[in-house]
Design a protein that fits this description.
The protein is built from 11 helices and no strands. It is mainly alpha-helical.
Length: 286
Amino acid sequence: MLDGVMLLWFVLAAASLLFVALDIRNTPESVVLKWGFVLVTAYTGVVGAFLYVLGCREPLPGLHERYVAVRWRQALGSTMHCVAGDGVGILAGAVISTSLHFPGPIEMIVEYVLGFGVGWTVFQALFMRDLAGGSYPRSLKMTFAPELLSMNFLMTGMLPVVMTLRKHIESAGNPMTPNFWFVMSMGLLVGFVISYPINWWLVANHLKHGMMTVRPASSDARATDRAAEATMSGTSHQGPHTSQERSVPQMSMSMSSAHAPWPPVSVMALLSFIALGAAVAIALLT
């Protein structure tokens, strides 16, 4: 039965990935978030495709700004961006660790270091440096705490699931088998769910971006944007900027906000490490 479930999972995942990769080209989202949805769909199959349609896909031409302005979709974009980048490093760490037969604790460390490293330095700081005025060092500083919180809760959800399933699914520790990739998919899927609340908090406190809209710099597109933003007035962090400019003030406004997050970032960081520690303990005891 498990083989049948996995076969169905991979067939649906392939179809979902093909759909998202082709369809998202017509969605006026930023390039990095487009790649993020493709990666998340590769990790989570039909769930990722469902999240793309529900959370990002423009329902009608000119409505993307209003569609993604609601808080839960903004948090979805933030979580998706986190999981996409961190997932690359986590999967690389899992493949390296299992291939070299590292023990469980070492594998967790390798996955955490590579996941955080790729997610922070590449997917957050590098790809989103324009939101920090084009400065990579400044972007590294701005994105460190949000990435740390997201990563900790992602691993909190993922580690117990992966380690538990490996105990019950044959060859799940061998990256040359589909069992391995199925288990990692389940882990990242649960990690996505567990990290969603902290991303909601990060977006609500203007510490992380959510969905964005990037349209061609044509007069028609600008007219559509102005009309959409006039309707959105008071419901979004975005100001009256053209499509190519919109993403920059969104982050700048958020990060320079005088509003102090509550609870403080230090408290949320402590809670994230407590949660991560509990997840590691559970994973080692399974």
